[in-house]
Please model this.
Amino acid sequence: MRPWARLGFWLPLAAVFVWGLVVLLIGEDTLRETTFTLMMFVGMASSLNILLGYTGYVSFGHIVFFGLGGYFGFYLLSQQGLWLLPAAVGGGLLSGVLAGLLGLAVLRLRGAYFALATIGINEAARAFVSNFGPFGGATGLFVNFQAYQAYGGAGPALWTTFTYLWLVTLAVLLVSALVQGSRFGLGLMAIREDEDAAMVMGVAAPRAKTIAFMLSAFFPGIIGTLYFFKNGNVEPGDAFQLHMSIEALVMIMLGGQGTVAGPALGAVVYQGLRGYLLTSPLFKSLHLAMAGLFLLLIVLFVPAGAVGWLRHRFPRLRKVLT
Amino acid sequence: MRRLLFLLGALTVTALLAGGMAGAATKNVVIGFTASQTGKLNVEAIRQINGLNLWIEQVNEAGGVKLPDGTVLKFQAKFYDDESKKERVQELYTKLINQDKADFLISPYSSGLADAAAVIAQQYNRILISAGAASDSTYKKGYTLIFQVYTPASRYLTGALDLLAKMDPAAKKLAIIHEKDKFSTDVVEALKKYAEGKGYQVGLYEGYEPGTTDFAPFINKIPAGTDAILGGGHFADTSTFAKQLHEKGIKAKMVALLVAPPEPKFAELGEAAVGVIGPSQWEPLATTYNKDTAQKLNLPFVGPSVEEFNKAYQAKYKETPSYHSAGGYVAGLLLGEAIKQAGSTDTAKVKEALDKMDLLTFYGRLKFDTAKDHGLQIGHEMIYTQWQKDAQGKLVNQIVWPEAFRTAEAKLYRQ
Model:
């Protein structure tokens, strides 16, 4: 059966489609900002899931692609005068190519060694950017407020950025679902279960892993450009925050790794909860402790994540939740 | 007939009373901001909020700000924790403006966060007073509603060189070691340019990563015969750097570092703090910012005196105010004064009042650039402090520069 013939293929896509559409139709600024943060993490977690969920390779360096790709996209935009969309795609392409090159080196490592190498890459990338002249070194780059005029003013520019982010998030979910349902995806999952056995069975593991790595790196580059454009500036400290990589991992675990809907759900729940706790008068000072407690409970009692648990508990849902 | 007249009279009185009441209506002015209550910037950020809250409390107790139409304005703070992280700042400022109906905004602490907030403020046509953010670059972006309270980064350490020239005209060799973040880099880039223009040799110019805790590699690289060591970054790293300079027994005529030395907490370093010079936006000792000076400069003096501010702050928070506290207070003071002069809370009118403003406060002079770098602080001057031992051997922070404001003569670091 073709993957798109199943209901589960369309469900996460439809949810994000309707969600973004509703925000656009309501046109309320606060809602847009909250959704922007949420959707950014849906995109980040879902793109990381293409590597982590399907191949089982845990990467702490996902933020590198967000940072470097975003930096490059922002450079194209602010220094070379490119329009937002081509600049963002440029950032994504750089991330993808970089992942391809890196993959050749680090994807030979397995398990904890791969995870450790990815932490190193994060630090290396930040150190590189802080010393790289064209990217503004430690002071970073910025766009003049006038730059937003080209998009019809600052308000419309933020809406445009939001719309692009929405489309990118849809694209991530589409690619994730296509990979999951394809022969290529099956190969990846075989690698996750037993890499040696998969190779014996004819899966070209090194190539498959590298492609998965490139796919998972492409989207953060685009998201990074959009995010930095919205901020109006970029600095090394903001671009390479290890905690964002870790948060993306947590979201995947929360929602259910290796599923399409899981990471998206995990991102919404995790960020939604944090955003709520941060601004609620009661928990304002306790939000981090509360979020920690919540995570502990999830990891202890629902290790397969929400979607994994539902699939296990209600076999009928397996058709709907992929 | 009499009854009717009585009724009419009663109605008229009621109407008049109601009219009078409406004329003296109170309006709540919401000042919105985010603050880093958690995360790496919380020491400085909390002092800044304390300062602002003190102003709000005082202005409301004094009956608020009265507008020409009789409306009395009372102020109210509305804020969220930004966790010292940028990804939340824009979301929270949008919420402050749209949901909490903030009329005016104060920036978060630190230049990076303030930059992210500035975009939102300008977009929603809100005035943002930036306190605790010194980068010059924010004002090169074409904003018209962002006003800076701090002396900009480019002038943070240049005065230390003027002081060095005074202390020892023969001193020529400098070492600059700084945190590689936006603020500190802005500072030292301007410093290096200024130093080279004055004929100094910069023998070492190195940046360290934010979060560095071991400075030995940098200290070991300081060339022999260096006269002055300048740089640093934020509180935690700069304190550690000063401590390790002392432990390594480095000899120099001057050590001038960013942010940490003016903080009262810096004294906890004990011996390592002695002789360290720091640029400060303001000091509790700076009593020369008073009405007499204002008269001499032909400027209006606004707000409490330095002594009054110190006393009130000490009474409320049981600690000596630092320049972050003063910055928070003066952000409110500035806003209140601008509203008073504009006679309105309308953004365009208050902006105009801020553009015209040139006054002296307990915090120093305040005047904004209205030309190319709109909103950049051009009136305020840095003062330089040095930790010295008094007759009893106790550590005290003295103002050593500019000469006009000094409370003690600057001493050499270690010889």
Observations:
- The interface with chain A takes residues 37-38, 80-81, 83, 85-88, 90-92, 94-95, 97-99, 112, 115-116, 118-119, 122-124, 137, 140-143, 180-182, 184-186, 189, 207, 209-210 of chain B (CB under 8 Å).
- The first helix of chain B runs from residue 2 to 23.
- The radius of gyration of chain B is 24 Å.
